[in-house]
Amino acid sequence: MLSARILGVGVVGPGISDWLSAAAVLRGDEPYTPSATVLPEPAALPPAERRRAGRVIRLALAVGAQAIAAGGADPRGLPTVFSSSSGDGENCHEICVALARGERQLSPTRFHNSVHNAAAGYWSIAYRCPEASTALCAHDASFGTGLLEALAQLARSRAAVLLVSYDVDYPPPMRWRRPIPDAFGIALLLTAADGISAAPPLARLQLSFTDAPAAPMHDRELEALRRQIPAARGLPLLEYLARGQRGPVALDYLNGQRLRVEVGT
Questions:
Q1: What total number of domains does the chain contain?
Q2: Residue 106 included in any domain
Q3: CATH code of 53's domain
Q4: Under a CB-based contact definition with an 8 Å cutoff, are residues 223 and 217 in contact?
């Protein structure tokens, strides 16, 4: 059975700026107030790369930075797993607009931001990280697939791994086909060994498969968010962490299966 310890969490989304604000909402201490996602500037990037960074890059770097800060980890030595259902929707839209025009002139920045592992590349630049990075896409199961990959890497290497799962909305007309309403991202700093960080683990996880239905959110609006944005399929796990709950939580995966995540101390 795959297992890990969670050392740090990062989260940004509609009405959510970080793990502390999210945890207060998930515990029920504060009401959830939906509002447009605010993405901070990626201060860790050099100025030239910062100017080229679109919303998906800013989102991925923001949640990743929160997780490593919370866990007290050195990002230069961390392998990473980046998982997104759609990548950079805004950039994809602009490329399609350019190709539909007569001249079909495409910006080099648009082109190099179009690859699915662009966020991983910007992360390596921001933190001068030479470690291996994996970029995944599994449609609505992208959070669960990323979590499974991260724990599989821990089982193989016994090192810490940073998981970053993120999605941004498409502009029309692609939004009509893929109606993701806003940007949302979750990052988890995971380890399988003691001594990686001075920070105590938030929880221990054990991962297996189940046919049980995916766990819904207690709050109606957070449940709508979970259903609408693939990266938000990890919200039930965050709710367990925020409330200090222990036991199994089922998360969406592929082909009618779910991941059974046993949350323990």
A1: 1
A2: yes
A3: 3.40.47.10
A4: yes
Measuring CA to CA, how many Å separate 222 from each of 115, 238, 265?
30, 12, 26
Residue 6 Cα distances to 74, 154, 241, angstroms:
15, 12, 9
Written as one letter, the residue type at 193 is A
Residue 264: phi, psi to the nearest 5?
-135, 180
Q: How far apart are CA 95 and CA 107, in angstroms?
A: 8
Asked, for residue 9, whether it belongs to a domain, the answer is yes
61, 51, 184: which is closest to 127 by C-alpha?
61
Give me 205's structure tokens: 């996880």
Backbone angles phi, psi at 170, to 5 degrees: -85, 145
How high is the pLDDT of residue 98?
86
Q: Is the pTM here over 0.90, yes or no? A: yes
255, part of any domain: no
Tens-place pLDDT, residues 156-214:
877 899 999 999 998 888 888 889 999 999 999 999 866 566 568 899 999 999 999 99
Report d(CA 250, CA 237) in Å as an integer: 8
Q: Which residues form the domain of 72?
A: 2-200
Report the distance separating Cα 152 and Cα 158, nearest Å: 10
Segment (H or E) for 223: helix 220-228
> Residue 235: inside a domain, yes or no?
no
Q: Burial letters for 44-79: b for 16+ Cβ neighbours within 10 Å, e otherwise?
A: bbeeeebebbbbbbbbbbbbbbbbbbbbebebeebb
